[in-house]
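Lab manual, section 2.4: Encoding a predicted structure.

Procedure: take the sequence of the chain (182 residues), apply the prediction step described in section 2.3, and record the output as structure tokens. A sample record is shown.
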Amino acid sequence: MNDEIAPIEREHGTAIPEAGMFGRIIDRGGVIFAIGILVAMLILIQEVILRYVFNAPTNWAHETTIFLSGIAFVYGGLYCAARDRHIRVVLIYDALPYRFRRVLDVAISIVCAIASTFFAWAAWLMVERAAFTPAGEFRLERSGSAWDPVYPGLMKVFLLLVMAALAIQFVILAYNYAKGQK
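Recorded output:
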């Protein structure tokens, strides 16, 4: 195979080989969040019927659908990284020979790993305030609404976990791009 042309041989609908086993696990986990979006839709349909047909709205539907949608969007970034389906400007990238694209893939993955680590650190700072009392006891931040779920605290903890996983995923990608592993 000519190294300058090296076609992209990627199976659609799965994590890229460079993402490794970690990426395959992330890819499989995406179905959970897709189901969460469907559950959010069903909750909204139920809420519309309860509110406008029976005049009996719930006090939990709005916050629950926001939470389910929010965690799906947060997970979506990790999911896209494992599948290499994120948005990028390819004007220069596609014009480069395969070797240079591989060097760029390594460099971009390293920069993204560093950025993800900084975002994970920032998320940890949020989690410190959202999950622990000043005395150090574990207590998740609540919404403050009439229902008062712990969704804000859970979202911040989830964001921390996803950003840490994203940093790990980018390290794996950088390593496998550097090795030239397919």
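Check your result against the sample. The chain has one domain: 17-179.
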